[in-house]
């Protein structure tokens, strides 16, 4: 039977067939030459061993770099050639005519009863080195933010290479099914992606070298552009005695002085759900004349300002003689990550 290679991990190869099911082949059973995602192969199995025979798309001939079995190799190779001549052309045509996406990772997860979780707060940041050394459990719900350095389209999915935290030494290979691809993602976009850690994957570059990267199945994503900020609904956080504060963007506050006197405002403290930020910035002007307003962006260097988190801010307001007028306590819920 003909299969398509839909995934390669450190110790397994996933083969999808024309009926939408898949077979997992342990690498321990076989001795491999080069195989890559998307290859068409024949797969045979018996009590004496296993055999994978890669198939060239153009000539339907067995490639010279066929994957050889450890046991009884000669007999198996003769058998595979005979079976190949009889069956492979018909099976290849049927497989190519199967419905798009039938062997997608999303369908594979569905057959494994792994459901898509739309609650972004259930996804977590993970250690890149641990992931890159294949020490992260498969199907862990993960979240990454960073810059898209490469994007491409395949039959049933979009492939991204994302520089996690904008660090080009921490590249993650992300696959997003077309059924989950809502908005266009382009190179150099800043994105936050929520999905499942799927171990590591190896792909071939345009220079014909192999690269192995942490592999993620993206389920939900955000593209951080000015357009998405324009759709933000302004929220009033405080309004008393001529002083008003609004949240005008995800991480931006606007402070109005509608009182009759000049005021000074400065942040006293900021915490994220009880965890105090030691290093942060909230750029509010020291002095505000009556009728003035100022915008302040919230930033931190600790990476705690994530989607779904609640930020608690204490602002101290004084008059021109630095006498305290009031202390304002506000809470801000982030709709998406703040990427510094």
CATH architecture of the largest domain: Beta Barrel
Query: Which class best fits the helix and strand makeup?
Result: mainly beta
Strand content: over 45%
Distance between the first and last residues' Cα: 51 Å
Count of extended strands? 22
**If you average the pLDDT, what whole number results?**
78
Count of distinct structural domains = 3
Number of helices: 4
* Helix and strand element order: EEEEEEEHHHEEEEEHEEEEEEEEEE
Shape: elongated
Structure description:
This protein has 340 residues and is mainly beta. The chain folds into 3 domains: 2-96, no CATH class; 115-224, Beta Barrel (OB fold (Dihydrolipoamide Acetyltransferase, E2P)); 229-333, Immunoglobulin-like, CATH 2.60.40. The chain is 12% helix and 46% strand. A 5-stranded antiparallel beta sheet has the order 3-2-1-5-6. A 5-stranded mixed β-barrel has the order 8-9-10-12-11. Strands 13-14-15-20-18 form a 5-stranded antiparallel beta sheet, with no helix packed on it. A hairpin with a 2-residue loop joins strand 5 and strand 6 (49-55). The protein is elongated, with a radius of gyration of 27 Å. The two termini are 51 Å apart.
